[in-house]
Amino acid sequence: MKMVAQVHPAEFVVFGGLMVINLGVGLYFAMRKTHLDAGTEEVFLGSRSLGAIPLSLSVLATMVTAIGIVGFTTHFYVYGLHLIWGSITALVVVPFIAKVVIPVIYNLKVTSVFQVRG
User: Fold this and answer.
1) Residue 32 and residue 72 share a domain
2) Which domain holds residue 18?
3) How far apart are CA 80 and CA 73, in angstroms?
4) Where are the transmembrane segments (predicted)?
């Protein structure tokens, strides 16, 4: 017996709802004309006033995508858990970066690490 994948109508409703919400948010900020003169520092760095929690959630949302979740799950299933060493390494490296690298770059008032040699 051959199995055929089918998409449930509720999935279309959820997908359509998400697209409408995203479109609404995009149109709202496109029509709002209060920050047309926003510079690089305001756009990329949140005027250097963005807290650690919103910044970390932004980075997390950037890195944790649906494709990544499906891709890593499939990779673990097919090839094993050898990529878990990257997570273990991150537990060691992230505190070092947070305490040493980030304060140096922040105090230099640069937007990117590529500007350090500048």
Assistant:
1) no
2) 1-50
3) 10
4) 12-31, 52-78, 84-108
